[in-house]
Design a protein that fits this description.
Radius of gyration: 24 Å
Strand content: under 5%
Number of helices: 14
Largest sheet: 2 strands, antiparallel
Oligomer: single chain
Number of strands: 2
Helix content: 55-70%
Structural class: mainly alpha
Strand order of the largest sheet: 1-2
Order of helices and strands: HHHHHHHHHEEHHHHH
Amino acid sequence: MAQCLGPTMLLLLLLWLLLRWSSSAAQNRCVAAAEACTADTGCQRLRTEYVAQCLGPAAPGGCPRARCRRALRRFFARGPPALTHALLFCPCGSPACAERRRQTFVPACAFSGPGPAPPSCLAPLEACEHSRVCRPRLLAFQAFCSPAPSFPDGCQPDQAPNCLRAYAGLVGTVITPNYLDNVSARVAPWCHCGVSGNRQEECEAFRGLFTRNRCLGRSKVPDNIPGFFLDTVLKLALFLCCFIHMPLLQDDGLEVLRLQREDHVLHLILTIKQSLSIAGSLLFTGASFLDTRSKTSCLF
């Protein structure tokens, strides 16, 4: 047991440093995304255009919703995806950051209204199905973000990029989704299913594409970073304890054992990098260091 203490302590130190780094980075990602867009002439011009349209003059008690949404569609269609998606999907570690993210696309005009209370989701759904702008975008979202029970993890392989693009394509339509609060990453259109009558199931299925869609949730960068990958890190700690100090019984099996160890380490590193893209490089560096140390102590 004492032999496990060294590598385990190193891994825990790496985890502690990573959590501090990722928490700090996540709290500022939305500010950084806004600054990056401002620094890019094209992104800033398109952003200024939608803000001006969404906050522009309108009839008393209303807003220029059609012009606002048209400008938002232009922003995502013509702006650099790396910058526009960074604004839309920036991860947050605090309510202040999450509120900034929720307000990014002027939800008072682009998201909610025109009435004071959200309508049944059947109303915007039907409007979308009869819209030449909205209908193909909804079909793309359903195709690229819907769960796929036939796959082992319930989602299509490599679906995240297409899912995020399809989701962004809905912003500026009659079913524009947005973040629902500043304490989570939950998203949905501005509607509910409380008064859907005998079409309740249809209504819930549509809203569930946003609120209960594990594949959409997995495509976005998680806000709760520690809980998302802690299990994988602990598995790596167990691996280090079990494999670094495994007794070598015969020289003939030395190369096979070394390759097995490298395969296990590589698999776990790739798993962590996929789970936590914003900290993947740091984990790779730390795990590579531990792997080097393990082979040095076991093989030589």
